[in-house]
């Protein structure tokens, strides 16, 4: 929790600085963003025939600081539901909820259009496993998932008029998610987002 508060304080501080340093013709400042997520487990120990993408969501805020006319720094904090679906008789699924803290670099090759990439640290908020048995859903909380997850985020975005924006991104986790295990299993998934910059 102390780490999360530190990142929030950093984001607020950068937001305040950005008001004085933004390029006049670029939307910047504080914003909100959310959308659908499509996540799965990835890695050499994951069989593509066993697992399928699971639909979740993400929502949160960001702040944007333009360092040049074409390059911006964008830290953010998001609540994100990830996991996977296992196609067995019980329709088993893992539901992993994180607080994602990405620090993105956005490059604007032209007005509106941007490409972005940057590191992300994720803090586990809740981990749950579910299955359907004889018409009933059985679930239990798990403490087998690591509390932090490191990854890389990259994607494409476009700024619409009046502060609105849309983007598509991919989260590439490279920290094995299970505790006390040598399994090569990672969080991997797509996000489709819509946002608004104030």
Short note summarizing the structure:
This protein is mainly beta. It has one helix at residues 2-21, and strands at 29-42, 51-52, 54-66, 71-86, 93-107, 113-133, 136-141, 148-159, 164-173, 186-197. The protein has one domain: Beta Barrel (Porin).
What does this structure look like?
With 198 residues, the protein is mainly beta. It has one domain: Beta Barrel (Porin), CATH 2.40.160. The protein has one helix and ten strands, in the order αββββββββββ. The chain has an eight-stranded antiparallel beta barrel with strand order 1-3-4-5-6-8-9-10. A hairpin with a 5-residue loop joins β5 and β6. The longest helix is centred in the first third of the chain and has 20 residues. The protein is elongated.
């Amino acid at each position: 929790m102390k780490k999360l508060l530190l990142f929030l304080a950093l984001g607020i501080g950068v937001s305040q600085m950005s008001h004085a340093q933004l390029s006049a013709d670029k939307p910047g400042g504080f914003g909100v963003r959310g959308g659908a997520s499509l996540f799965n487990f990835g890695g050499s120990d994951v069989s593509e025939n066993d697992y399928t993408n699971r639909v979740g969501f993400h929502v949160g805020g960001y702040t944007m600081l333009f360092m040049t006319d074409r390059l911006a720094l964008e830290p953010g904090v998001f609540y994100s539901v990830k996991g996977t679906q296992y196609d067995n008789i019980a329709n088993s699924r893992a539901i992993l909820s994180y607080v994602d803290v990405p620090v993105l670099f956005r490059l604007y090759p032209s007005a509106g259009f941007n490409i972005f990439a940057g590191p992300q640290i994720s803090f586990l908020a809740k981990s749950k496993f579910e299955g359907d048995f004889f018409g009933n859903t059985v679930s239990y909380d798990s403490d087998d998932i690591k509390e932090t997850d490191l990854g890389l985020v990259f994607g494409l975005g476009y700024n619409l008029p009046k502060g609105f924006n849309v983007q598509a991104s991919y989260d590439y986790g490279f920290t094995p998610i299970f505790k006390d295990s040598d399994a090569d299993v990672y969080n991997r998934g797509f996000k489709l987002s819509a946002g608004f910059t104030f």
